[in-house]
Amino acid sequence: MQQESLAGKGRAKIWQKPHFLPVMRPGGWHGLALISPPFVYSLLMLAAPLLLVFLLSMWTQNYLELDRTVTLANYREAISEELYRVLMVRSLVISGVVTVVTVMLAYPIAYYVAFFGGKRKSMWLLLITIPFWTSYLIRVFLWKVILGYNGVVNGSLLGLGFIEEPLSFILYNANAVVITLAHAWAPFAILPIFVSLARIDKSLLEAARDLGDGPIRRFLRVTLPLSMPGVVAASLIVFIPTVGDYVTPRLLGGTNGLMIANMIQIQFGKANNAPLGSALAVSAMIVVASISIAFVLFNRRFLKVKG
Amino acid sequence: MSAKPPRSLFTYAVIYLIFLYAPVLLLPLFAFNDSAIIALPLSGFTFHWFGLLWETKALHEALYNSLLIAVVTAIGSTTLGIFAARAAARYEFPGKRGIVGFIMVPLVLPEIIVGVALIVVLIQLGLSLSAWTVIIGHVLICTPFAIAILQSAFNNMDRSLEEASMDLGENKIGTFFRVILPLVTPGIISSLLISFTISLDEFIIAFFLTGTDATLPVYIWSQLRFPARLPAIMALGFLMVLLSFILLLAAEYFRRRANRIAGNPQSSDESIF
């Protein structure tokens, strides 16, 4: 995606792209015609369905019948019912914690590969991405094995005599969900941060050193601000899908680990209330989008900086 | 910058890699462990669980469904990706950023939303769920990855080769099939492999949209509830890891070749994203 925008900019310079295009350039129709198959596919299979979800969320389910009178009743229920509110807040908090933990754990690795990877940068990146290509379900389940009452962590700690009885705070609660998701989303956090770190002009770092900044000040005043576009991208890439996860909470979260996505799934499945499920999905999307936009605006001074 | 990393940073990198690989490394241990319970200590070596896989019929059906879905998804999303990547890399047109951005949206959309959106349409249209409904969803989420890979292949391509072909009298379609396509073939293969792998492992959308044709991950999900079935699932997981690993290495090989053909080895690090 970043490459696309860069390429776009390079071309704009050559052709001096005007702000308003009354007449299309010769290539214009070709480009539009060429991109229309994927564009139409996305319109038909994504935009139209999302619109229908939005419509459905304003209808109501009466047992087997669908009442098509437009009403906000589902939204009222989604907001006023305490269970949904609790699940929504919990999803946001868990996703927020997962995002912070994942990005903070990922940053030093991205830093290491970008500055000290040398000729082995590609090998490091490949090493980081390989575990990500194993079945997500099985990976999540294996964390259950690792963290479980008779699991690898407890087994080793007991065997080594560090603990007297198995630790119970690491499975079937939010901690387990955070650990597992921090693992699952690691490559998605590392790659954007790596790209923004690798783009930093090394002469800026030398300049900071020559002007008397120590390593810590140099990092805080030069490296970190210049890598913020990567950090922001990584945060959003981790945060947004995590809110919608329902595998990890189901397998590892116990009763207190249920998230909003589980409830949406239940409404479409067992509860057979698609309109309420749609309203919950739309509410979740609106909340997540608002938080993401606020996050980008909050960091916009970093995003203007060119590495 | 000096090439010598601080010791603490290197230690951290190693610990982090252990964290990343811990679950994957456990998989073969339990896949070959001669015990019906997934726990340490290990009790003995066996191929029994792999033999069990061979005899499970439901698994074979799930595997067939998954392979069918993954192959069609790979071809569909790569084809759509070629259109989008070529348009984005070669042409300027009004609304380009918006259109490309819109096609890339599934990358940042929770998968459950994609699943919900599609199931709502299918219910309203009165269509029944099948492997094809899963394919629709998978093409949607794989196309952005295909575009990201193919765009770097198209961007790295030397434009003068295309111009030379036109100057020598080849028309647009001929140029595309005889010059451009061969140059980006490694990118296309890489895109096919990545889309195939994503589709094969995808669970959330598949769970919403499969109906009776369970895919491999949906089958695994149904088995995770039964402790007695778990060792066989570990064996299955081990085989899937091996397959993913081989496909990924192949994809990486072709992606690098795509960049090398284009004479631009530098971009190989950044084009992953």
Quick overview:
The complex is a heterodimer of chains A (307) and B (273). Chain A has 307 residues and is mainly α.
Description of the molecule:
The complex is a heterodimer of chains A (307) and B (273). Chain A is an all-alpha fold and 307 residues long. Chain A has one domain: MetI-like fold, CATH 1.10.3720.10. Chain A is 73% helix and 2% strand. Chain A is built from 15 helices and two strands. Chain A has a two-stranded antiparallel sheet with strand order 1-2. In chain A, helix 4 packs across helix 8 (174-184) and helix 13 (260-268) runs antiparallel to helix 14 (274-298). The longest helix of chain A is centred in the first third of the chain and has 35 residues, at 82-116. The two termini of chain A are 16 Å apart. Chain B is an all-alpha fold and 273 residues long. Chain B has a single domain, classed as Orthogonal Bundle (MetI-like fold). Helix content of chain B is 74%, strand content 0%. Chain B has helices at 7-31, 48-55, 57-90, 96-104, 111-125, 131-156, 159-167, 172-201, 204-209, 216-223, 230-261. The longest helix of chain B has 34 residues, at 57-90. Chains A and B meet through helix 1, helix 2, helix 4, helix 5 and helix 6 of A and helix 1, helix 3, helix 4, helix 5 and helix 6 of B.
